[in-house]
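From the thread on structure requests for the teaching lab: each student submitted one protein with a one-line request. Submission from student K.M.:

"Model Cytochrome B561 from Advenella kashmirensis W13003, tokens only."
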Amino acid sequence: MENRSRSGYGAVTKFLHWTMAVLVIWQFLKFFDRINDGEHWVGETLVSWHISIGTLALLLIVLRTCWTLTHRQQRPAHEQKMAFLVNAGHFLLYLSLFLLPVTGILRMVGGGYGVKAFGWQLIEKGDEVSWAASLGSLHSPFAWVLLILVTGHILMAVYHQFVKRDGAFARIV
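Reply posted by the TA:
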């Protein structure tokens, strides 16, 4: 199904990677909500999709994790000394990409709001749930962690492309 080799990623992996990249960038637009209480074009148009896009991102990161775990033997090879850092970095990215929407859902449920995505009520409104609200309070700190990890990921891609010139970026495009 996937045409990949040890020197590059296949179409499914590339699709999942770049789709997640677009969704994560979209979600980072939520930071604009802090400017002028969201009273601007970004806050009034794109940010309103935050919960729906986060729900989609959760589904895709679960799918991507399953895909990665079942196709580990086909991943491109890395220099042995870098393999640990590459694997640790990707593990932290995947973990953050999973925990961020989960804590977002817990934040909504904890506040009694329920969860509505793309017009579908996935979790009904109800009473406040204190333990969910407590765990949900980690949503914003996790967003900052993910921002740092994504920035590091992008900087490493730029480093590989323009400093090392080792073709690492070409594997995923």
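TA comment: The first helix runs from residue 11 to 28. The chain has one domain: 11-171.
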